[in-house]
Amino acid sequence: MNPLIISHLDKSFKKKQVLKDISFVLEGPHIYGLLGRNGSGKSTLFNLINNRLTPDRGQVLLDGKPVLEDDDGLEQLFLANHTTLMRKDEKGKVKKYIRLANQFYPDFDQELCEHLIRVFDLNVNTRIDKLSTGYQTIFNIILALCVPASFIFLDEPTLGLDANHREIFYKELLTTFAKRPRTFIISTHLIDELAQIMDQVILLDQGQIKLADSVENLLAHSYALTGNQEDIEAFMSNYHVIGSERIGNQFTVYIYDTKELTDLPDTIQKSPIDLQRVFIELTTTRGGLDYHEA
Ligand SMILES: Nc1ncnc2c1ncn2[C@@H]1O[C@H](COP(=O)(O)OP(=O)(O)OP(=O)(O)O)[C@@H](O)[C@H]1O
Predict the structure, then answer these.
(1) Is the CB of 283 under 6 A from ligand 1?
(2) What pLDDT is recorded for position 256?
(3) Ligand 1 atom at shortest distance from the alpha carbon of 44
(4) Is 268 touching ligand 1 by the criterion CB < 6 Å?
(5) pLDDT of 84 higher than 60
(6) Most exposed residue of 158, 225, 251, 266, measured as fewest CB within 10 angstroms of its CB?
(7) What is the count of structural domains for the chain?
(8) Residue 124, domain member (yes or no)
């Protein structure tokens, strides 16, 4: 599978710059999590990559060619989101749109589609504009898992889904990923849940890529140091601190650094942190110690 190269994308709406010089590479097969706070530009980025919006600068390349100028390239990309699939003037039944997807994509996975309709208990005789929010999401998910694209973008695929349906989604995603490896790029705010599924993470912060790494690397290089404030402050200046916290007289700093931690004094305890904590610390501006380069 050739990588999809996102190169120097800029996007402004009127005078407001929403995405600034976005570059990264999507390799396959992987499950990427695109994480970012509200308004950080995730949906805009998905829309630019999938030709639903035009960038002010930059391009998206597959096999060395800009995908927007290449129909074969564009067919390798699929975006499921909440605004584009559900147009207000669409009034047919769910089964009509599934039939259309089947006609449009000769390699549409009809067997998987029928299985997903069953496990999600989607009534295909419901008019598409009458689906509940959760079932609109389910319909989007079903199409996304069944199309034969190589890069599948899911913009908040858990929106409106109850806990049972989210569990079904994660399970079915992993099953189809194992059977037919391809690349999924999933934006979500449910970091703890997606942490069990994704193997790569891209962090978007205020319109810029703050980090792109494997989940394994990110967690291996992130940890908390807890103890006496003076000892910690004397020790941590060599490391990349992403946040700090005081509870009573316990002082904690959060570190994200590829350098090995050496000569840790006995008065300081090191403990692992989870992806959600890394995300919060990397995307919070509280001033003070919060973010300094070693
Ligand atoms: N069509 C548009 N016209 C003007 N501004 C827009 C448009 N689309 C997005 N924006 C602005 O761009 C910024 C990024 O929005 P975007 O929806 O991409 O963020 P997001 O990370 O997906 O947010 P959320 O997590 O809240 O869904 C926001 O400030 C939003 O108001």
Answers:
(1) no
(2) 93
(3) 18
(4) no
(5) no
(6) 266
(7) 2
(8) yes
Q: Is residue 287 part of a domain?
A: no
Sheet holding 183-187, edge to edge: 77-80, 151-155, 183-187, 31-35, 200-205, 208-214
**Contacts of residue 85, Cβ cutoff 8 Å, sequence gap at least 6:** 136, 139, 140, 143
Whether the CB-CB separation of 25 and 35 falls below 8 Å is answered with no
* Boundary-marking domain end, from 173, 189, 217: 217
Q: What's the average model confidence in pLDDT over 248-266?
A: 89
Q: Is 248 exposed, middle or buried (0-12, 13-18, 19+ CB in 10 A)?
A: exposed
**Is a pLDDT exceeding 60 seen at residue 290?**
no
User: What is the C-alpha separation between 100 and 178, in angstroms, rounded?
Assistant: 27
Q: Are residues 184 and 172 in the same domain?
A: yes
Query: What is the mean pLDDT of the segment spanning 231-254?
Result: 89
Residues forming beta bridges with residue 34, ordered by sequence position: 187, 202
- 141: domain CATH number is 3.40.50.300
Most informative mutation of 19, 42, 188 for ligand 1 (most atoms within 8 A of CB): 42
- In the predicted model, is pLDDT for residue 273 greater than 70? yes
Give per-residue pLDDT as tens, 202-217.
999 999 999 999 999 9
**Ligand 1 pocket member 207 (CB < 6 A):** no
How many whole angstroms from 42 Cα to the centroid of ligand 1? 8
Range of the domain at 45: 4-217
- Among candidate residues 154, 161, 173, 163, the one with its CA nearest the CA of residue 136: 161
CA of 111 to the centre of ligand 1 (A): 36
Q: Which band of pLDDT confidence, cut at 50, 70 and 90, is reported for residue 288?
A: very low
Ligand 1 atom 17 nearest Cα: 43
Distance 41 CA to ligand 1 centre (A): 6
Q: Is position 43 within any domain?
A: yes
Q: What is the pLDDT of residue 293?
A: 43
